[in-house]
Design brief:
single chain; 148 residues; alpha/beta; five-stranded parallel sheet; 5 strands; 40% helix
Length: 148
C-alpha cells in the first residue's frame, strides 16, 4: 500500500517559522517520524512538499493512479484552494487533513477548510504527532474498507 503525504506552502520552513505556533520540529524530522510509522504499518510513503498549488494538484491526481490514500497538510491553501478540494474529490481516495496548530484557536479565517468536506477527518492542534496519528487512522480505515 502506498500513501501520498502532501505538505503545503511554507512547511519547508518548519523548525524556524513561528516555533511558538508550529513547534521546533523540522519537516525532515516529521518525515523521518512518518517513515518510521510507515515501516511499522507496512506501507510505503511518497512524500512531497510544495509551495505551488498546481504542483499539489498534480500530485493528488497522480495519487489517483498509484496510491491507496492521501495524508495532506494543505497549510494556507486549506482556506483558499477550491483546486485542491476539487482534486481530492476527483480522485476519490480516502484522505486525512492534518494541521500542526489548533486552527480553531487562531484567526477566524483559519477555521474554515475548503477540503474538510472531501476528507475522512481532520487532526489539528497536536503538532507533529498529528501527522503520525493521521497516518495511522488513514491506514486503519483503508484496511477496514478492504482496500489495502
Amino acid at each position: 500500500m502506498r500513501i501520498l503525504v502532501l505538505h503545503g506552502p511554507n512547511l519547508n520552513l518548519l523548525g524556524r517559522r513561528e516555533p511558538e505556533v508550529y513547534g521546533r520540529k523540522t519537516l525532515a524530522g516529521i518525515n523521518r517520524e512518518l517513515a518510521g510509522v510507515a515501516e511499522e504499518l507496512g506501507v510505503e510513503l511518497r512524500i512531497i512538499q510544495s509551495n505551488h498549488e498546481g504542483e499539489l494538484v498534480d500530485e493528488i491526481q497522480k495519487a489517483g493512479q498509484d496510491c491507496a490514500g492521501i495524508l495532506i497538510n494543505p497549510a494556507a491553501y486549506t482556506h483558499t484552494s477550491v483546486a485542491l478540494r476539487d482534486a481530492l474529490a476527483a480522485v476519490a481516495l480516502p484522505a486525512v487533513e492534518v494541521h500542526l496548530s489548533n486552527v480553531y484557536a487562531r484567526e477566524e479565517f483559519r477555521r474554515e477548510s475548503l477540503v474538510a468536506p472531501v476528507v475522512l477527518g481532520r487532526v489539528c492542534g497536536f503538532g507533529a504527532d498529528g501527522y503520525l496519528w493521521g497516518l495511522r487512522a488513514l491506514v486503519k480505515k483503508i484496511r477496514e474498507d478492504g482496500n489495502g
